[in-house]
Amino acid sequence: MLTAIIALSVLAGGCGLLLGFAAVRFRVDGDPIVARIDALLPQTQCGQCGFPGCWPYAEALAAGQAEINQCPPGGEAGIQALADLLGRDPKPLNPDNGTVRSKMVAIIDEQTCIGCTLCIQACPVDAILGAPKLMHTVIAKECTGCELCMAPCPVDCINMVPVKETLSTWKWPCPVLPGDALPDHRAAA
Amino acid sequence: MVARSLAQAPFRLWTFNGGLRLASHKAESTWAAVTHAALPKRLILPLQQHIGSAAKVIVAAGERVRKGQLLAKADGYISAGLHAPSSGTVAALREHPIAHPSGFSASCVILETDGLEEWCELPPPLADYLAVTPAELRQRVRDAGIVGLGGACFPSAVKLNPDPSVRIDLLILNGAECEPYITCDDMLMRERARQIIGGLLIMRHALQVKAAIIGIEDNKPEAYAALVRALAEYGMEVEGISIRTVPTLYPAGGEKQLLRVLTGCEVPSQGIPAEIGMVCHNVGTAAAVFDAVMEGRPLISRYVTITGDGVRNPRVLDVLIGTPISELIEQCGGYNREVKRLLMGGPMMGFALQSDEVPVAKGTNCILATGGLETEPAPVMPCIRCGACMDVCPANLLPQQLYWHARSKEFDRLQDYHLFDCIECGCCAVVCPSHIPLIQYYRFAKTEIWAQQREKQKADLARRRHEFHLERIEREKQEKAAKLRQKKAALQETFTAEDPRKAVIAAAVARATAKQADAKLVTTADAARERDT
Known about the structure:
The complex is a heterodimer. Helices cover 35% and strands 7% of the residues of chain A. Chain A is mostly helical. Among the domains of chain A are: 32-97, 3-methyladenine DNA Glycosylase II, Chain A, domain 3 (Orthogonal Bundle); 102-163, Alpha-Beta Plaits. In chain A, helix 2 (32-40) crosses helix 3 (54-62). Chain A starts with a helix and ends with a helix. Chain B is of the alpha/beta class. Chain B has three domains: 2-9 and 16-342, NADH-ubiquinone oxidoreductase 51kDa subunit (Rossmann fold, 3-Layer(aba) Sandwich), CATH 3.40.50; 377-497, Fumarate Reductase Iron-sulfur Protein, Chain B, domain 2 (Orthogonal Bundle); 499-533. The longest helix of chain B has 59 residues, at 438-496. In chain B, the strands form four sheets. In chain B, strands 1-14-13-17-15-16 form a six-stranded mixed β-sheet, sandwiched between helices. The A-B interface holds A 38, 41-45, 53-54, 123-127, 142, 144, 165-167, 169-175, 177-179, 182-185, 188 and B 48, 98, 100-102, 104, 106, 379-385, 409, 434, 436-437, 440-441, 443-444, 446-448, 450-451, 454-455, 458-463, 465-466, 468-469, 472.
């Protein structure tokens, strides 16, 4: 009896020590699920979800304080990916957060720009170049199309234009066939 | 090692999975000897005719250029320069429709020809190529703007410079030309066999290999005979080179398939032949290399087949790069009936052109105009899972699985099924009893996956930049706070230490208290006196 108690106590103590050691030694900094959610978000940093950027939205999603349908730039594919990762049911995009639009890029009308630097401060990815009282311009390659620069502009010289498709970004269209309208072979069977 | 022993082994051929025996339709365009196409009034030269970054223009509009002069230089390692195919004046640098399935326009140099055909000064011929280092040969090939003329248009100088960590044992020259209708390589082998063998010798020296095989499909006996004759004309230097016919079976001209047939070796999935010690070039590329090294001539023209039942006199022409296709059709007697489709490339792998105003590019091997009923698409029916596509797939893939996943846009699964090993040969679509346009699905899925990868890269970049942005704002805030603290501290210090005004104030305060004390003393003394009296 006593031997059994001692043996179990020693075993339990040993396991406890081992677990305690592991908890310290293999500690994971931060919440890995947040990083995985963040990897699925489009990183436009536009704030349309109601959070100040993609990472805060990811944190809110991980904590269960946000819905998965709040990201318009991610579109339907983004919602589907989040649903798969988080094990939630996919649902249509919340219209309060905006609508899915084609990819945009900001263009500064350089004739109208007065060089106030307000848009530079608003840009979440530092994609606007300029200096006080000098003309500003957008680095199109870095622009995420978040539209955050439009509101602060006092002379309304920033416009969003759709990203132009080039030879290197052109995609073959998905075949749309009369066959798609036919019943699937399983449905027909 | 394997490759080397195979090259020396007695004649033996292997097979690849599937493949199709197709009606060749080659005789239509090989009846006449190749002639030079007439010089067009204007040449349209796209800056991007190759894999890699587009060439950089170095001429200005209005400038007069001579034949062979560099118009745009290679931009980066994987790129190729562009030369003037004829003398004339640069009319403009602008967007022009090019031969691309999208039908988009791209930046082009528009050259108005003057008909003088006045050559610029060419680099000196390197007649004794064996005395030249491989690096110099590669530089010459690069300067001549040569790209793979088989259709992929990969810069040839890069392919002649394999990774030093791998050992190349075997050079293969691809003269199979397996696709129906296309005959430009066939005619090139018949008419320029000496240059092809010469180019092969130069490439062999550039790669420092001994063994080389030229592979030709057995439906080109004239080309085979011409090459054998040309080989015999060279002396001892051709030792190690063999010419082999392979059975006519589409797509035996695919790089991986030809390697398989000639050597029995498989190129690894998503790999290149260099990984198994082999390099494969097209016969046209070899001839271009010969011209560049032996004559200093850049790549400004190529053989193009103009064929199909929509053209009156199908034939092969020696065409200057940049010639509009409409002019070539004109020189072949024009369209002979209402043409339904104009294809660039063959019937299996070509793509439809939306206009005949697009120019011939370095990779253009065939213009196919079809007007018959045979091109009428049959109605598409549902997949019956017969597996015929799998039986013919020369890349050992499962086309049916790829189709299902592409249709439901499951791109991860597509990559599990090795979508990127698909060479888009079209065999599966030809045998499909339901006439499903399988290749369209694969092309769609491939470009979609590339787009997703680009988007992912862009998102990663945006994330990094946003993180940096937040970090910068935080740093600026802290720096500002630190500065403010410093200023405050400095102010405090100057206020407490050795301020003359402070001393004055202190002295005044001291005087006042002393006076007050005095007054108090006086009043106490007075009170005492009054008490006494």
